[in-house]
Design a protein that fits this description.
By secondary structure, this protein is α+β, with helices and mostly antiparallel strands. It contains ten helices and seven strands. The chain starts with a helix and ends in a 5-residue tail after the last helix.
Length: about 270
C-alpha cells in the first residue's frame, strides 16, 4: 500500500513538473532560437503539451518573421529605384507566377516577392496603358504575371534551359548585364474581364512554342490554332500597350518592354 501511494505521488509530481516546464522552460527554449522555431524543431523533450506549445509559438514567430523579411526585401528593391505599381495604379490585379510553384520550373522562385515593381520609365508607361484601357474598355483590367525579376533568379532559370530548345525564351544573364526584367523595364501581363477571368489568348502564359508568337498570328489563325476571338484579344492588348509606348516581344504575346535592353543597361542598374 505504501509503495502504491509513493508511486502515485511520484507520478503527480512528474506531471506537475512537466506541465510547469511546458508553459515556462519549454516556451523559453522554443523562443530562444527563431530559426529553430521556424523549422518546428522544438520537440526534443518529447512532451506532447510542450510540442504543441512550441509549434504554436513557432508558427506565430514564422509568420511574423516571413512578413518582416518580405517587408525588408520590398524596401531594398524600392531603394534601388523601383516603384510598387500596386500602390499607385488603381485597378490592377497582380499574380506573380514565379512566387508560386505553378510555373515552368515547378517551384517557388520569388520567396520574398509577391508584389509587382518596375523602374520609373516602365511604371509611367504602365500607368498610361491603364488610362488608355479605361478609355477604351471600362469592363477590362490588367493582370500582371511578372515585373521586375532579380538577376539571381534569372541565373536559376538559365541553368534550367541552357543547352535546350528553350534557350530562345529565357534571356542569358551571362552574355550581358541582364535581361529586360532584370532592369525592371519589362512587364508580363494579360487582360481580364470584370469578374477577374483572363481573356483567352490562344496559349497560356509562359507557353514555349509557336502559339505564343506574335509574328505568327496570321498563320496560327488560318491553321485554326488560335480562334478569331483569341486573335482579337491579343490585338487589343498589343494596341493598348503600343499606344502607351511599350515595345512588343515577337515571341511572347504577354511580354512588353519599356525600352531596349541595351538602353536600359546604359541608364539603369541591374536588380540583384
Amino acid at each position: 500500500m505504501n509503495k502504491l501511494v509513493l508511486l502515485l505521488v511520484s507520478a503527480l509530481l512528474a506531471f506537475s513538473c512537466c506541465s510547469g516546464q511546458s508553459s515556462s522552460s519549454c516556451k523559453e527554449k522554443c523562443n530562444a532560437d527563431g530559426e529553430q522555431l521556424c523549422h518546428a524543431q522544438c520537440n526534443s523533450d518529447g512532451q506532447q503539451h510542450c510540442s504543441q506549445q512550441c509549434n504554436s509559438d513557432g508558427q506565430a514567430h514564422c509568420s511574423h518573421q516571413c512578413n518582416a523579411e518580405k517587408a525588408d526585401y520590398l524596401n531594398s528593391l524600392k531603394a534601388q529605384g523601383l516603384i510598387d505599381v500596386m500602390d499607385s495604379i488603381p485597378g490592377l490585379d497582380v499574380y506573380l507566377v514565379y512566387s508560386t510553384p505553378y510555373n515552368f520550373m515547378g517551384r517557388v522562385l520569388y520567396k520574398n516577392l509577391d508584389r509587382a515593381l518596375l523602374a520609373e520609365p516602365a511604371y509611367k508607361k504602365l500607368k498610361r496603358a491603364q488610362e488608355i484601357l479605361r478609355e477604351k474598355r471600362m469592363d477590362l483590367h490588367f493582370l500582371i504575371y511578372d515585373a521586375v525579376r532579380p538577376v539571381s533568379i534569372q541565373r536559376e532559370m538559365w541553368k534550367v534551359v541552357e543547352g535546350t530548345n528553350l534557350e530562345d525564351f529565357v534571356a542569358n544573364p551571362n552574355k550581358r548585364k541582364g535581361g529586360p526584367h532584370n532592369f525592371g523595364i519589362a512587364v508580363d501581363l494579360t487582360l481580364c474581364d470584370c469578374a477577374g477571368n483572363p481573356l483567352p489568348m490562344g496559349s497560356e502564359y509562359d507557353y514555349f512554342g509557336d502559339r505564343a508568337r506574335v509574328d505568327k498570328e496570321d498563320e496560327l489563325f488560318k491553321s485554326g490554332e488560335i480562334t478569331y476571338r483569341e486573335l482579337k484579344n491579343r490585338q487589343l492588348l498589343r494596341e493598348i500597350m503600343v499606344e502607351a509606348g511599350w515595345i512588343v516581344e515577337p515571341s511572347e504575346w504577354w511580354h512588353f518592354g519599356a525600352m531596349t535592353t541595351k538602353e536600359a543597361s546604359e541608364k539603369l542598374p541591374v536588380i540583384e
